Amino acid sequence: MRSKSFIIETLQGDTGGRILIAILLCGCVVFPVFNLLVPQSSAFHISTYLVTLFGKYLCFALLALALDLAWGYCGILSLGHGAFFALGGYGMGMYLMRQIGDRGVYGDPLLPDFMVFLNWTELPWYWYGFNNFGFAMVMAMFVPGLLAFVFGWLAFRSRVTGVYLSIILQALTYALMLAFFRNEMGFGGNNGLTDFKDIIGFNLQTDETRAVLFVVTGLILILVYLFCRHIVKSKFGRVVVSIRDAESRMRFIGYKVENYKTSIFVLSALIAGIAGALYVPFVGIINPGEFEPLNSIEIVIWVAIGGRSTLYGAVLGAILVNYAKTRFTAVMPEVWLFALGGLFIFVTLFLPKGLVGFFSDLKEKMEKKE
Description:
Number of helices: 15
Radius of gyration: 21 Å
Strand content: under 5%
Protein backbone atom coordinates (compact mmCIF):
# COMPACT_ATOMS: atom_id res chain seq x y z
CA MET A 1 0.00 0.00 0.00
CA ARG A 2 2.83 2.38 0.86
CA SER A 3 4.49 1.85 -2.55
CA LYS A 4 1.15 2.39 -4.28
CA SER A 5 0.50 5.63 -2.39
CA PHE A 6 4.07 6.75 -3.12
CA ILE A 7 3.51 6.28 -6.86
CA ILE A 8 0.16 8.10 -6.74
CA GLU A 9 1.66 10.98 -4.77
CA THR A 10 4.70 11.19 -7.03
CA LEU A 11 2.62 11.33 -10.22
CA GLN A 12 0.06 13.76 -8.80
CA GLY A 13 -0.45 16.55 -11.33
CA ASP A 14 1.77 14.79 -13.85
CA THR A 15 -0.64 13.69 -16.57
CA GLY A 16 2.14 13.26 -19.11
CA GLY A 17 4.09 11.08 -16.71
CA ARG A 18 1.11 8.83 -16.07
CA ILE A 19 0.51 8.41 -19.79
CA LEU A 20 4.20 7.67 -20.35
CA ILE A 21 4.31 5.00 -17.65
CA ALA A 22 1.11 3.40 -18.95
CA ILE A 23 2.62 3.22 -22.47
CA LEU A 24 5.88 1.78 -21.14
CA LEU A 25 4.08 -0.87 -19.10
CA CYS A 26 1.99 -1.77 -22.12
CA GLY A 27 5.13 -2.00 -24.26
CA CYS A 28 6.81 -4.27 -21.69
CA VAL A 29 3.95 -6.71 -22.19
CA VAL A 30 3.16 -6.31 -25.88
CA PHE A 31 6.70 -6.44 -27.31
CA PRO A 32 7.79 -9.72 -25.66
CA VAL A 33 4.42 -11.43 -26.23
CA PHE A 34 4.16 -10.45 -29.89
CA ASN A 35 7.83 -11.31 -30.40
CA LEU A 36 7.96 -14.71 -28.68
CA LEU A 37 4.42 -16.07 -28.84
CA VAL A 38 3.06 -14.76 -32.14
CA PRO A 39 4.27 -16.75 -35.21
CA GLN A 40 6.60 -14.96 -37.62
CA SER A 41 4.10 -15.52 -40.42
CA SER A 42 1.53 -13.39 -38.58
CA ALA A 43 1.09 -9.69 -39.37
CA PHE A 44 1.12 -9.01 -35.60
CA HIS A 45 4.56 -10.54 -35.06
CA ILE A 46 7.18 -8.11 -33.72
CA SER A 47 10.66 -9.02 -34.92
CA THR A 48 13.68 -9.28 -32.64
CA TYR A 49 15.19 -6.45 -34.68
CA LEU A 50 12.38 -4.13 -33.57
CA VAL A 51 12.66 -5.31 -29.96
CA THR A 52 16.37 -4.48 -30.03
CA LEU A 53 15.80 -1.16 -31.82
CA PHE A 54 13.18 0.06 -29.35
CA GLY A 55 15.29 -1.25 -26.50
CA LYS A 56 18.01 1.14 -27.68
CA TYR A 57 15.45 3.94 -27.77
CA LEU A 58 14.56 3.24 -24.14
CA CYS A 59 18.25 3.50 -23.21
CA PHE A 60 18.45 6.85 -25.00
CA ALA A 61 15.28 7.95 -23.19
CA LEU A 62 16.96 7.13 -19.87
CA LEU A 63 19.98 9.19 -20.94
CA ALA A 64 17.75 12.14 -21.91
CA LEU A 65 16.03 11.86 -18.53
CA ALA A 66 19.44 12.17 -16.87
CA LEU A 67 20.27 15.34 -18.79
CA ASP A 68 16.86 16.89 -18.15
CA LEU A 69 17.39 16.45 -14.42
CA ALA A 70 20.63 18.45 -14.62
CA TRP A 71 19.78 20.96 -17.35
CA GLY A 72 16.02 21.34 -17.10
CA TYR A 73 15.80 21.62 -13.32
CA CYS A 74 19.24 22.85 -12.26
CA GLY A 75 20.32 24.83 -15.30
CA ILE A 76 23.52 22.80 -15.84
CA LEU A 77 23.87 22.61 -19.61
CA SER A 78 26.09 19.53 -19.76
CA LEU A 79 27.80 18.75 -23.04
CA GLY A 80 29.56 15.81 -21.43
CA HIS A 81 26.78 13.34 -20.71
CA GLY A 82 27.94 11.22 -23.61
CA ALA A 83 31.08 10.51 -21.55
CA PHE A 84 29.08 9.28 -18.55
CA PHE A 85 26.99 7.13 -20.90
CA ALA A 86 30.10 5.66 -22.52
CA LEU A 87 31.80 4.94 -19.18
CA GLY A 88 28.73 3.03 -18.04
CA GLY A 89 28.81 1.15 -21.32
CA TYR A 90 32.44 0.20 -20.83
CA GLY A 91 31.58 -1.14 -17.37
CA MET A 92 29.07 -3.52 -18.93
CA GLY A 93 31.38 -4.26 -21.86
CA MET A 94 34.22 -5.28 -19.55
CA TYR A 95 31.92 -7.72 -17.76
CA LEU A 96 30.70 -9.21 -21.06
CA MET A 97 34.29 -9.56 -22.32
CA ARG A 98 35.23 -11.54 -19.21
CA GLN A 99 32.52 -14.08 -20.06
CA ILE A 100 34.25 -15.03 -23.33
CA GLY A 101 36.76 -17.82 -23.83
CA ASP A 102 38.40 -20.48 -21.71
CA ARG A 103 38.52 -20.49 -17.93
CA GLY A 104 41.57 -20.61 -15.70
CA VAL A 105 42.43 -23.08 -12.98
CA TYR A 106 39.98 -21.55 -10.50
CA GLY A 107 37.21 -21.04 -13.03
CA ASP A 108 37.99 -17.36 -13.64
CA PRO A 109 37.96 -16.11 -17.24
CA LEU A 110 41.35 -15.64 -18.88
CA LEU A 111 42.60 -12.60 -20.79
CA PRO A 112 40.15 -10.98 -23.25
CA ASP A 113 41.01 -11.86 -26.85
CA PHE A 114 42.21 -8.37 -27.80
CA MET A 115 44.78 -8.49 -24.99
CA VAL A 116 46.02 -11.84 -26.28
CA PHE A 117 46.33 -10.30 -29.75
CA LEU A 118 48.37 -7.40 -28.32
CA ASN A 119 50.63 -9.86 -26.44
CA TRP A 120 49.55 -8.81 -22.97
CA THR A 121 50.70 -11.34 -20.39
CA GLU A 122 48.45 -10.48 -17.47
CA LEU A 123 45.17 -8.79 -16.74
CA PRO A 124 45.44 -5.08 -15.77
CA TRP A 125 44.48 -4.36 -12.16
CA TYR A 126 41.50 -2.23 -13.18
CA TRP A 127 39.95 -5.27 -14.89
CA TYR A 128 39.84 -7.25 -11.63
CA GLY A 129 36.35 -8.04 -10.41
CA PHE A 130 34.64 -7.50 -13.75
CA ASN A 131 33.94 -11.21 -14.08
CA ASN A 132 31.27 -10.55 -11.42
CA PHE A 133 28.04 -9.02 -12.74
CA GLY A 134 27.19 -7.16 -9.54
CA PHE A 135 30.64 -5.58 -9.28
CA ALA A 136 30.53 -4.54 -12.93
CA MET A 137 27.15 -2.86 -12.53
CA VAL A 138 28.31 -0.99 -9.43
CA MET A 139 31.36 0.25 -11.34
CA ALA A 140 29.21 1.24 -14.33
CA MET A 141 27.54 3.73 -11.98
CA PHE A 142 30.41 4.49 -9.63
CA VAL A 143 32.95 5.61 -12.25
CA PRO A 144 30.63 8.14 -14.00
CA GLY A 145 29.42 9.30 -10.59
CA LEU A 146 32.97 9.76 -9.31
CA LEU A 147 34.00 11.68 -12.43
CA ALA A 148 30.92 13.91 -12.10
CA PHE A 149 31.62 14.49 -8.40
CA VAL A 150 35.26 15.48 -8.94
CA PHE A 151 34.42 17.71 -11.90
CA GLY A 152 31.39 19.26 -10.17
CA TRP A 153 33.21 19.79 -6.89
CA LEU A 154 35.95 21.72 -8.70
CA ALA A 155 33.79 23.58 -11.22
CA PHE A 156 30.85 24.64 -9.06
CA ARG A 157 33.05 25.80 -6.18
CA SER A 158 34.95 27.90 -8.70
CA ARG A 159 31.58 29.21 -9.90
CA VAL A 160 32.13 28.07 -13.46
CA THR A 161 28.75 28.27 -15.18
CA GLY A 162 27.05 28.71 -18.52
CA VAL A 163 28.93 28.31 -21.77
CA TYR A 164 32.29 28.01 -19.98
CA LEU A 165 31.10 24.92 -18.11
CA SER A 166 29.75 23.41 -21.33
CA ILE A 167 33.03 23.99 -23.17
CA ILE A 168 35.09 22.40 -20.37
CA LEU A 169 32.79 19.36 -20.36
CA GLN A 170 33.17 19.04 -24.12
CA ALA A 171 36.94 19.17 -23.72
CA LEU A 172 36.77 16.48 -21.02
CA THR A 173 34.68 14.26 -23.27
CA TYR A 174 37.09 14.71 -26.17
CA ALA A 175 40.08 13.94 -23.95
CA LEU A 176 38.46 10.71 -22.77
CA MET A 177 37.73 9.72 -26.36
CA LEU A 178 41.39 10.20 -27.32
CA ALA A 179 42.53 8.24 -24.26
CA PHE A 180 40.25 5.28 -24.97
CA PHE A 181 41.46 5.15 -28.56
CA ARG A 182 44.94 4.21 -27.30
CA ASN A 183 45.66 0.47 -27.25
CA GLU A 184 47.84 0.74 -24.16
CA MET A 185 44.84 1.89 -22.11
CA GLY A 186 43.61 -1.70 -22.15
CA PHE A 187 40.07 -1.07 -23.43
CA GLY A 188 40.36 -2.45 -26.94
CA GLY A 189 41.58 0.74 -28.61
CA ASN A 190 39.84 1.77 -31.82
CA ASN A 191 37.82 -1.45 -32.03
CA GLY A 192 36.58 -1.24 -28.46
CA LEU A 193 34.91 -4.23 -26.83
CA THR A 194 32.67 -6.51 -28.90
CA ASP A 195 31.76 -10.07 -29.88
CA PHE A 196 29.86 -10.61 -26.63
CA LYS A 197 28.35 -14.03 -26.02
CA ASP A 198 26.63 -14.35 -22.62
CA ILE A 199 25.13 -12.22 -19.87
CA ILE A 200 24.72 -13.85 -16.44
CA GLY A 201 24.72 -17.25 -18.15
CA PHE A 202 22.19 -16.49 -20.91
CA ASN A 203 22.98 -16.32 -24.62
CA LEU A 204 22.79 -12.70 -25.76
CA GLN A 205 21.76 -13.68 -29.28
CA THR A 206 18.51 -15.48 -28.41
CA ASP A 207 15.11 -13.87 -28.84
CA GLU A 208 14.20 -14.66 -25.23
CA THR A 209 17.23 -12.81 -23.84
CA ARG A 210 16.55 -9.79 -26.03
CA ALA A 211 12.93 -9.69 -24.87
CA VAL A 212 13.97 -9.88 -21.20
CA LEU A 213 16.51 -7.09 -21.74
CA PHE A 214 13.75 -4.97 -23.27
CA VAL A 215 11.45 -5.54 -20.29
CA VAL A 216 14.22 -4.86 -17.77
CA THR A 217 15.17 -1.61 -19.56
CA GLY A 218 11.53 -0.49 -19.68
CA LEU A 219 11.01 -1.17 -15.97
CA ILE A 220 14.24 0.60 -15.02
CA LEU A 221 13.15 3.61 -17.10
CA ILE A 222 9.86 3.70 -15.17
CA LEU A 223 11.64 3.43 -11.79
CA VAL A 224 14.15 6.14 -12.69
CA TYR A 225 11.34 8.38 -13.94
CA LEU A 226 9.52 7.99 -10.62
CA PHE A 227 12.76 8.66 -8.74
CA CYS A 228 13.46 11.83 -10.75
CA ARG A 229 9.87 13.00 -10.36
CA HIS A 230 10.12 12.45 -6.60
CA ILE A 231 13.37 14.44 -6.49
CA VAL A 232 11.99 17.46 -8.36
CA LYS A 233 8.81 17.51 -6.23
CA SER A 234 10.70 17.39 -2.94
CA LYS A 235 12.03 20.34 -0.98
CA PHE A 236 15.46 19.54 -2.37
CA GLY A 237 14.06 19.78 -5.89
CA ARG A 238 12.38 23.12 -5.20
CA VAL A 239 15.67 24.51 -3.94
CA VAL A 240 17.42 23.24 -7.07
CA VAL A 241 14.86 24.93 -9.33
CA SER A 242 15.29 28.16 -7.35
CA ILE A 243 19.05 27.92 -7.89
CA ARG A 244 18.40 27.54 -11.62
CA ASP A 245 16.23 30.66 -11.68
CA ALA A 246 18.12 32.87 -9.21
CA GLU A 247 21.48 31.40 -8.22
CA SER A 248 22.93 34.61 -6.77
CA ARG A 249 19.86 35.22 -4.61
CA MET A 250 19.90 31.66 -3.26
CA ARG A 251 23.59 32.02 -2.45
CA PHE A 252 22.89 35.31 -0.68
CA ILE A 253 20.12 33.70 1.40
CA GLY A 254 22.62 31.16 2.68
CA TYR A 255 22.17 28.02 0.62
CA LYS A 256 25.28 26.04 -0.33
CA VAL A 257 24.57 26.30 -4.03
CA GLU A 258 27.61 24.28 -5.07
CA ASN A 259 26.51 21.30 -2.93
CA TYR A 260 23.07 21.19 -4.53
CA LYS A 261 24.47 21.51 -8.05
CA THR A 262 27.09 18.83 -7.42
CA SER A 263 24.46 16.45 -6.01
CA ILE A 264 22.17 16.84 -9.01
CA PHE A 265 25.10 16.52 -11.41
CA VAL A 266 26.26 13.29 -9.76
CA LEU A 267 22.73 11.83 -9.76
CA SER A 268 22.42 12.69 -13.44
CA ALA A 269 25.76 11.00 -14.20
CA LEU A 270 24.71 7.86 -12.31
CA ILE A 271 21.55 7.59 -14.42
CA ALA A 272 23.58 8.16 -17.61
CA GLY A 273 25.91 5.35 -16.54
CA ILE A 274 22.95 3.00 -16.05
CA ALA A 275 21.70 3.93 -19.53
CA GLY A 276 25.10 3.11 -21.03
CA ALA A 277 25.27 -0.24 -19.24
CA LEU A 278 21.82 -1.22 -20.55
CA TYR A 279 22.66 -0.03 -24.07
CA VAL A 280 25.69 -2.26 -24.67
CA PRO A 281 23.93 -5.68 -24.60
CA PHE A 282 21.47 -4.41 -27.22
CA VAL A 283 24.09 -3.17 -29.70
CA GLY A 284 26.78 -5.75 -28.93
CA ILE A 285 29.68 -3.28 -28.96
CA ILE A 286 31.18 -0.35 -27.08
CA ASN A 287 34.01 1.69 -28.55
CA PRO A 288 35.56 5.17 -28.14
CA GLY A 289 33.15 6.55 -30.73
CA GLU A 290 30.54 6.74 -27.95
CA PHE A 291 32.63 9.56 -26.42
CA GLU A 292 32.27 11.60 -29.61
CA PRO A 293 31.41 15.21 -28.55
CA LEU A 294 28.65 15.30 -31.18
CA ASN A 295 26.79 12.60 -29.20
CA SER A 296 26.58 14.86 -26.15
CA ILE A 297 25.22 17.67 -28.31
CA GLU A 298 22.58 15.33 -29.74
CA ILE A 299 21.38 14.51 -26.22
CA VAL A 300 20.78 18.21 -25.61
CA ILE A 301 18.79 18.37 -28.85
CA TRP A 302 16.59 15.43 -27.74
CA VAL A 303 15.71 17.21 -24.51
CA ALA A 304 15.16 20.59 -26.19
CA ILE A 305 12.85 19.13 -28.82
CA GLY A 306 10.84 17.11 -26.32
CA GLY A 307 10.63 19.87 -23.76
CA ARG A 308 13.05 20.48 -20.90
CA SER A 309 11.91 20.68 -17.27
CA THR A 310 9.17 18.11 -17.88
CA LEU A 311 11.00 14.74 -17.63
CA TYR A 312 8.47 12.97 -19.85
CA GLY A 313 9.20 15.51 -22.57
CA ALA A 314 12.85 14.45 -22.54
CA VAL A 315 11.81 10.80 -22.93
CA LEU A 316 9.48 11.71 -25.79
CA GLY A 317 12.15 13.78 -27.53
CA ALA A 318 14.76 11.01 -27.31
CA ILE A 319 12.45 8.39 -28.77
CA LEU A 320 11.06 10.61 -31.55
CA VAL A 321 14.42 11.99 -32.67
CA ASN A 322 16.10 8.58 -32.70
CA TYR A 323 13.19 7.02 -34.56
CA ALA A 324 13.47 9.81 -37.14
CA LYS A 325 17.24 9.21 -37.30
CA THR A 326 16.69 5.52 -38.01
CA ARG A 327 14.30 6.33 -40.85
CA PHE A 328 16.27 9.25 -42.24
CA THR A 329 19.67 7.54 -42.25
CA ALA A 330 18.20 4.55 -44.07
CA VAL A 331 16.94 6.74 -46.92
CA MET A 332 19.22 9.84 -46.98
CA PRO A 333 22.08 9.37 -44.50
CA GLU A 334 24.02 12.37 -45.75
CA VAL A 335 21.10 14.73 -45.04
CA TRP A 336 20.40 13.63 -41.45
CA LEU A 337 22.76 16.04 -39.64
CA PHE A 338 21.40 18.98 -41.62
CA ALA A 339 17.84 17.92 -40.80
CA LEU A 340 18.70 17.55 -37.11
CA GLY A 341 20.39 20.95 -37.01
CA GLY A 342 17.46 22.58 -38.80
CA LEU A 343 15.00 20.95 -36.42
CA PHE A 344 16.94 22.21 -33.41
CA ILE A 345 17.02 25.77 -34.78
CA PHE A 346 13.29 25.62 -35.52
CA VAL A 347 12.49 24.41 -32.02
CA THR A 348 14.76 27.00 -30.41
CA LEU A 349 13.16 29.87 -32.34
CA PHE A 350 9.52 28.85 -32.50
CA LEU A 351 9.04 26.16 -29.80
CA PRO A 352 11.24 27.25 -26.88
CA LYS A 353 9.31 24.94 -24.54
CA GLY A 354 9.64 21.98 -26.90
CA LEU A 355 6.82 19.82 -28.22
CA VAL A 356 5.37 19.22 -24.77
CA GLY A 357 5.26 22.94 -24.03
CA PHE A 358 3.69 23.68 -27.41
CA PHE A 359 0.84 21.21 -26.90
CA SER A 360 0.34 22.38 -23.30
CA ASP A 361 0.00 25.99 -24.45
CA LEU A 362 -2.33 24.91 -27.25
CA LYS A 363 -4.50 23.03 -24.77
CA GLU A 364 -4.70 26.06 -22.46
CA LYS A 365 -5.75 28.33 -25.33
CA MET A 366 -8.49 25.92 -26.37
CA GLU A 367 -9.77 25.70 -22.79
CA LYS A 368 -9.89 29.48 -22.51
CA LYS A 369 -11.91 29.74 -25.71
CA GLU A 370 -14.43 27.25 -24.36
